[in-house]
Amino acid sequence: MLMDLKLHNTIYGLIPVYDEDYDEKLKLKLGETYTAKIKLTRNLAFHRKYFAMLRCAWDLQSEAVQNHFRNNFTQFRKTVQIAAGISEPVYVISRKEFVEQAKSISFESMSEEEFIDLYKSVKNVLFDVFLKNVSESDFMHMLTNY
């Protein structure tokens, strides 16, 4: 049996974080011994802040810029991420060349430290390329609405 539970460490022990984690824990038999590998999980609130930052930047783009990205936020997000250097080469057979593809930012594939670096790099790209006419303080104020 393999489970992936999010647990919060308290003075009373490890406690499931989400309802799904609690439901999974209930499947464990009392009195049995289990082995667990403990890994510090990434900050979910910071992950949400990252997407809010990108969404806010996207919403500030002109219609022409959004049309350039085919009105597709995901294409915009991946393009910004690649420009920030968080990518990997992938060979495209039909083009017979390598192209850059955005790396996965899933919790399993990126540590908290890597994600912090990603956030900073993406933020720099946004202000250097897409938010030239927006001050960082104004942007951070707008970001509170996301």
Keywords:
146 residues, two-stranded antiparallel sheet, two-stranded antiparallel ribbon, 6 helices, 46% helix, extended, 14% strand, alpha+beta
Summarize the helices and strands and which ones pair or pack:
Layout: E1 7-10, E2 13-16, H1 19-25, H2 44-59, H3 63-68, H4 73-83, E3 87-92, E4 97-102, H5 112-130, H6 136-143
Antiparallel strand pairs: 1-2, 3-4
Helix-strand sequence: EEHHHHEEHH
Task: For the largest sheet, list the strands in their spatial order.
Answer: 1-2
User: Which structural class do you get from the secondary structure elements?
Assistant: alpha+beta
Q: Would you tell me the overall average pLDDT?
A: 95
Q: How much strand content do the residues show?
A: 5-15%
Which runs of at least 5 residues are low in confidence (pLDDT < 50)? none
Tally the beta strands.
4
Number of helices: 6
Largest sheet: 2 strands, antiparallel
Calculate the terminal CA-CA distance, rounded to whole Å: 39 Å
Given the C-alpha coordinates, what overall shape results? extended
